[in-house]
Amino acid sequence: MSVRDPAYALQKAVYQAIIATGAVDGRVYSEVPAQAVKPFVQIGDDFIVSNREAGEFHVCTAVVNVVAASKGKAKEIAGIIRAALEAPIEIDGFMVCEYEMPSSIYRIDNDCMTAQASLEFDYLLQTVE
Q: Domain 7-127 maps to which CATH number in 3.90.320.10, 2.60.40.1120, 3.40.50.970, 3.30.2000.30?
């Protein structure tokens, strides 16, 4: 039996949930275009560990980065995204068993003009046949 990889389904669900908030007027990217207008959200790395001992389970972490002109704006948008993603979301082909946001980091970039928030969201998924 092959293990179904949840990476794309997770990215798609995260994207849809962020878009639905309207927090950044549709500026949600996996690859940020040159000269992207701030604020925007970049769906970053995901980390996935699969376990087939008691069913097909996947421990998944999705990283979401908010980029804005000020730390306050980055925190405001991060709060909206947190409310959307620290909740049951629909992930095609998978049942969400557990979810949480274990960490966030807020910082000013080296240019001293750009603020970032990095949010990590953990999901325990089970493959649905």
A: 3.30.2000.30
Over the stretch 43-69, which tens digit does the pLDDT of each residue have?
Answer: 999 999 988 776 789 999 999 999 999
Which pTM was predicted? 0.91
The residues spanned by each domain of the chain are 7-127
The 10s digit of each residue's pLDDT in 110-120 is 988 899 999 99
Could you tell me the two tokens for 48?
Answer: 């996935």
The answer to whether 95 and 67 are in contact (CB under 8 A) is: no
The full DSSP string for 36-56 is PPSSEEEEEEEEEEEE-BTB-
